[in-house]
């Protein structure tokens, strides 16, 4: 039997009337979000609101407030008892608004009808400044990905300049970085005990600004590390690059140091993170009474695209130990994996299958990376001493347990549900974890997992992310050599043929990554052409705060080696790099051919055109090259045809 649509009081209040229906005359916390309000565990504001509610506090949410009018949205609930909480939403507002080439997007996936223009640029700072102008004595706590990744001096691609901590630019009182459940619970507990807000200096996973003449609050359990000041970063790009190494390493440690940075006579203080959430803790976040639906107020405004994409999906873990140099997942969610219990996952499956419009298909059963569920260090003591940003690059750590059996069991249990026709894995699969050429110490569980995945959980196309083909660029990306992807493709194709599935392997690639020149993109074109791929998913590199690649893009230096690297930056350079990926379009094919001829990349040109390599070039009496009988000098036949 399908569930009935919830009553309006089953959502968090979004209006004064809805709060009064709960008999609330005063609110403890008011949340301001750049996203529309979807009461689903994939939407951060909903999770934070439900956590606050579960702790016994009165909380309301103001989704996508109008910042251009008389600011009535910011005033409709009045003053909260404890604080305002501000987030830009599930995405950085600048990433949401602009393409990699800084063109304004015409849509917003987190807004009803997909309409753009319902949140400002730099949403966290804009909202916070408004609140501070209206309620100067009410504390503002900022969080979410936009705040989290801008907690210290960072490069802002959209304004093309270094910016100080978002605490400085927004005027917020406290910053919560990473996943916010643990610090928020601690903050609320202390406030309820009567601790003044300005004394919340020892809460883990938070940051704040303090005047230098006030001194740094002492904590005998924490060690401190001081990074280059904001002013030094402005004056010296190498100093900025060196900062990142410290910040990334401390973010990935079990026992991290407190980070201190000077900014114009004041100190930005970033406290160490909480320990990775235990199973019962992460379960408690997902098991809250979400309606799993958008607020009814949007009924006449159209579907919310981001919700439509994930409405029948289930997140089974958080975190990623990949440490890719262009990715922000570990910087925000953490390197260590927090996995839900099987009971919690199956309980959510039960909720999904009873949703009114469920047709039998779960769109994704995964996480930030599809196949890291339940994975962790075999000896915790070794992890406690580790500062490496990746557990699987340059090799898979010998202490990392990569058994896939718990995940395979989850797939099978969901697959067996009578109301589930198919449970797809839409998240990106880390193929290196299930390829024995790379994961040399893997047990047989990866074979079992791969068969289960390919035969039961692929919706015709399996997405994986080799990201590039050139060895030097893959090294910069912290990704395995391309030969391991080729090995994985063989495994996939073998299973596909055995079970007559006729499914596709769909690889993701990145163009214009720091260090990448035309030669590397030509290598990508040749390698993928020879494998029979016509690429679809090629992303132009976008510099986002707190990644190795962004530091290289801005400064020219690798933060770990301080070695200089070239980066394609002009619009023309970026366009040209992108063209290499789509070699199968006639205009690009001819352009690549000319480009390789002009730059005298003979071997790449031969491979691109499909020449047969001969040890000795034969010539006729006139000095012209002889072409062996039956060999074509240019291959324009069926993609993937063997030479």
Structural class of the helices, strands and pairings? alpha/beta
- Please give the count of helices: 24
Arithmetic mean pLDDT? 93
User: Roughly what percent helix?
Assistant: 25-40%
Radius of gyration: 26 Å
**Number of self-contained structural domains:** 3
Strand content: 5-15%
By CATH, the architecture of the largest domain is named: 3-Layer(aba) Sandwich
Total strands: the figure is: 20
Largest sheet: 9 strands, mixed
Determine and state the CATH class of the largest domain. Answer: Alpha Beta
Written description of the protein model:
The chain is of the alpha/beta class and 643 residues long. The chain folds into three domains: 8-206, 3-Layer(aba) Sandwich (Rossmann fold); 312-459, Transcription Regulator spoIIAA (2-Layer Sandwich), CATH 3.30.750.210; 460-467 and 488-643, no CATH class. It is built from 24 helices and 20 strands. Helix 20 (518-530) links the parallel strand 19 and strand 20 (537-540). Mean pLDDT is 93; it is low at 612-643.
